[in-house]
Amino acid sequence: MRASRRCCAAGACWRWPTRCRRWPALATSVSFAQAQLTAAVCAFQAQHPRVEVELFAVDRAVDLVEERIDLAVRITNALDDSFVARRLASCRSVLCASPGYLKRRGVPAEATDLKQHDCIAHAYGARAEYRLRQDGQPITVAVGGILFCNETAVLREAAIAGAGIAMLPTYYVVDELRRGALVRVLPQVEPEPLGIHAVYLSRRHQPQALRLLIEFLAQRYGGEQPPWDRAPAPARRSLGVRP
Prior knowledge:
By secondary structure, the chain is an alpha/beta fold. The protein has two domains: 25-91 and 194-229, 3-Layer(aba) Sandwich (D-Maltodextrin-Binding Protein, domain 2), CATH 3.40.190.10; 93-191, 3-Layer(aba) Sandwich (D-Maltodextrin-Binding Protein, domain 2). It has helices spanning 30-47, 99-105, 152-160, 170-179, 208-221; strands spanning 25-28, 54-57, 71-76, 84-91, 93-97, 119-122, 129-134, 137-142, 148-149, 165-169, 183-184, 190-191, 194-200. Strand 1 (25-28), helix 1 and strand 2 (54-57) form a beta-alpha-beta unit.
């Protein structure tokens, strides 16, 4: 992957160089780049070794036109109609906390119990709330806590450290749940799922490398469940010879 020399700190704006590029420029969130997209791009380049990719991980929605981004992988249910969007997968989230926090504060039994717990939430405004569904019905629970952040990576680390209950995407915590660093709570309650979309300007005059990349991501993440939500394959038993 080719890194831009003009890239600056996360959250800040930059302007693209005026030189002509022949490789796709791709942008997504920091957490999705870390957990899923970097490996996907490397696998794509293994199949197409002559294709260079500029991958930018940022904590905001980029401006495809102003920043000359060819493809943005966005996790949202609110899409801009002025762009083309292809759904790649669903993003499920879970409510989870560290074993230490649950031992100290107890395990919530109902969604309303979250009001009595420290919850770690995204810093989107003065009011933090969890949008949930139970038995097919929407539930909105106002939550409180002592830590709010705009980056999913920080929320995950805070949850592991025992700061409280967090609502985190399964693509980013599947390993922590499997090894017990985080424990799911309120399994009867489902946070609102989001769509994972490939967003780009137009289907017309689309470079071949970009078309190949979009199709690769659609195949990699497609199916009834994305790969991170599928049950791991059982370990194969050793066929060693008995002594």
